[in-house]
């Protein structure tokens, strides 16, 4: 099969080892956009080796935060089941590509003899999709923390309105003024109000 | 400097160096970065995300020999200590062994291996599936020690059982789920398996070969070339930290440090018992007190013996990871750098061996080697099979094993 891939006759087969279903979907989508139709996702560590030997991929993509990388390492040492893929890092001719991959947290194992430009296209795609996923995660975290901030400000306003008999606008203005004076975030001030109120609760 | 590590107790010296001020005293700071796999440790050192790293003692040897994926040649000038590994079998398997070989639980590691051999023979006769045993990485002390222990009782790890890799934090769960029947891994995972009632410790590193180095400080040669002064300071800081870690008076503080989520993240009292060598081996309450279960500094535990690099190579040859070739020995020796250790610690209070190589496993009596300003006693040193290793005769040593890769 290695011979086939050398001449580019057999369509490329890619395995994605990824437990996070969103990231797996993003990668899958990217590969299909890049014209790789034959993609298998392995989403669990159980039977990973057996699955890989059945799939017999030309390229394996796995995130570097996945501890299963050491499992693959052993497989490449002892097993003839998979046609002996090697880490793409071994060919260090394209340092820029490798650096970008490591920084994005992508590692790929590639069957020896696969044409370099094909590998590069796939790895570049994986890097950009990993980065896109990171961005998504970040945005999600930010959105969550914004929501949490808004909730905490509401609670702080409520406390001030009750304890100091202020209107909602006055309570908000007091929080804002305090935040400006202390050069801190509005949400932090609100958190202090909520915390101190809870300490005073009887 | 950036230091990669895997959350295991034998990262202690690196953690103490930073947290207890030994690094600062030398004018350096360690940024400790937790990672999840040895493959990452290797690759992030290669791609300059780490300057130095907590590594398995065979990794620098493998890297110099070009073994494994992305073999980036690195070296070690300093070992991070000895000990900590154990072979743990599933409780179910151990109870079967007890029944077959009438074990009462007080047997030594070799008797346990013979009982396992008897059970494996019986299981084969009954047509049952082969047992599955896990270690953490193909080029690991765990792989070679597990195999050494099995083979010492006549079990061929390549044909009588299935050897696989499971990352350390997943070993206990894998055993509980019956995906594996045994594993060899460093502390604290062995004792956690026993405490959870799923595993039985049947052999420790101290039973298989007490003076074996466990983890080492892996160094990027690019970084070392640009920062020789910092490397020397790091060795001095680690030497002081290692001495501090060995002192029982400091074990409370050390256990507390290691228990933090940023490091190992398990309960401090469990860590403390492991540091003291109070090993719970059976969920029924059976314990062993193992002197020097973890040794960080004493008996030249930090010295990167060329003879030990050669022993690692002998095991790679034994199990068919690499063919023996005398021309490879220069690469093997490039992996361990006692010369750098010696020059960094020249004139210090630490006794430094004056030789780079010795016959390993000479017997049960204490080994004494010449050291700067006198002699240094290294404690008992026998292999579980009682054969000594002469580093100048690797082919003879390997062919003397009845069980080896054909």
UniProtKB/TrEMBL annotation, chain A:
Species of provenance: Microvirga aerilata
SUPFAM superfamilies the record matches: CheY-like (SSF52172)
Record-annotated ANTAR domain positions: 133-194
Record Gene3D superfamilies: 3.40.50.2300, Winged helix-like DNA-binding domain superfamily/Winged helix DNA-binding domain
GO molecular function: RNA binding
Domain called Response regulatory: residue spans: 13-127
Lineage of the organism: Bacteria, Pseudomonadati, Pseudomonadota, Alphaproteobacteria, Hyphomicrobiales
GO BP terms: phosphorelay signal transduction system
Domain of life: Bacteria
Protein name: ANTAR domain-containing protein
InterPro entries per the UniProt record, alphabetical: ANTAR, CheY-like_superfamily, Sig_transdc_resp-reg_antiterm, Sig_transdc_resp-reg_receiver, WH-like_DNA-bd_sf
């Amino acid at each position: 099969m290695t011979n086939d891939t050398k001449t580019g006759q057999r369509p490329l087969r890619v395995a994605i080892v990824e437990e996070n279903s969103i990231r797996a979907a993003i990668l899958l989508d990217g590969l299909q956009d890049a014209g790789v139709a034959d993609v298998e996702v392995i989403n669990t560590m159980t039977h990973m080796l057996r699955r890989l030997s059945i799939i017999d991929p030309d390229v394996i993509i796995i995130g570097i935060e996945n501890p299963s990388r050491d499992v693959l390492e052993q497989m490449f040492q002892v097993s003839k089941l998979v046609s002996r893929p090697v880490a793409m890092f071994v060919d260090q001719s394209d340092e820029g590509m490798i650096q970008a991959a490591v920084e994005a947290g992508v590692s790929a194992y590639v069957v020896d003899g696969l044409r370099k430009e094909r590998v590069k296209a796939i790895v570049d795609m994986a890097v950009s999709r990993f980065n896109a996923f990171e961005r998504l995660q970040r945005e999600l975290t930010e959105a969550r923390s914004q929501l949490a901030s808004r909730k905490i400000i509401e609670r702080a306003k409520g406390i001030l309105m009750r304890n100091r008999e202020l209107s909602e606008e006055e309570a908000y203005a007091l929080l804002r003024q305090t935040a400006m004076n202390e050069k801190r975030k509005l949400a932090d001030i609100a958190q202090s109000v909520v915390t101190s109120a809870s300490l005073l609760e009887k | 400097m950036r230091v990669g590590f895997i959350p295991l107790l034998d990262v202690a010296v690196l953690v103490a160096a930073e947290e207890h001020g030994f690094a600062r005293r030398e004018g350096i700071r360690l940024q400790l970065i937790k990672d999840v796999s040895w493959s990452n440790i290797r690759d992030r050192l290669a791609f300059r995300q780490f300057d130095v790293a907590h590594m398995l003692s065979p990794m620098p040897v493998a890297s110099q020999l070009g073994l494994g994926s992305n073999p980036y040649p690195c070296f070690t000038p300093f070992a991070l200590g000895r000990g900590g590994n154990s072979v743990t079998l599933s409780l179910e398997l151990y109870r079967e062994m007890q029944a077959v070989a009438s074990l009462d639980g007080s047997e030594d590691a070799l008797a346990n291996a013979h009982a396992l051999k008897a059970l494996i023979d019986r299981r084969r006769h009954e047509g049952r599936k082969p047992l599955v045993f896990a270690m953490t990485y193909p080029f690991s002390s765990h792989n070679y020690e597990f195999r050494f222990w099995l083979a010492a009782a006549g079990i061929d790890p390549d044909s009588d059982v299935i050897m696989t890799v499971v990352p350390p934090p997943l070993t206990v769960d894998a055993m509980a789920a019956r995906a594996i029947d045994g594993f060899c891994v460093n502390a604290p995972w062995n004792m956690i398996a026993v405490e959870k009632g799923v595993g039985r410790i049947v052999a420790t590193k101290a039973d298989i070969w007490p003076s074996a180095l466990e983890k080492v400080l892996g160094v990027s040669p690019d970084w070392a070339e640009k920062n020789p002064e910092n490397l020397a300071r790091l060795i001095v800081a680690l030497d002081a930290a290692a001495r501090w870690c060995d002192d029982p008076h400091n074990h409370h503080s050390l256990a507390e440090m290691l228990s933090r989520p940023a490091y190992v993240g398990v309960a401090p009292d469990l860590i403390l018992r492991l540091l003291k060598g109070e090993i719970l081996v059976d969920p029924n309450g059976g314990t062993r007190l193992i002197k020097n279960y973890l040794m960080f500094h004493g008996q030249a535990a930090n010295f990167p013996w060329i003879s030990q690099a050669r022993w690692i190579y002998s095991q790679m040859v034994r199990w068919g990871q690499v063919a023996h070739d005398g021309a490879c020995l220069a690469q093997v020796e490039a992996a361990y750098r006692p010369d750098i250790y010696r020059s960094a610690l020249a004139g210090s209070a630490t006794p430094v061996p004056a030789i780079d190589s010795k016959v390993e496993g000479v017997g049960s009596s204490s080994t004494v080697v010449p050291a700067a300003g006198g002699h240094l006693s290294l404690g008992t040193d026998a292999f579980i099979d009682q054969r000594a290793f002469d580093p100048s005769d690797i082919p003879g040593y390997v062919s003397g094993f009845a069980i080896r890769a054909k």
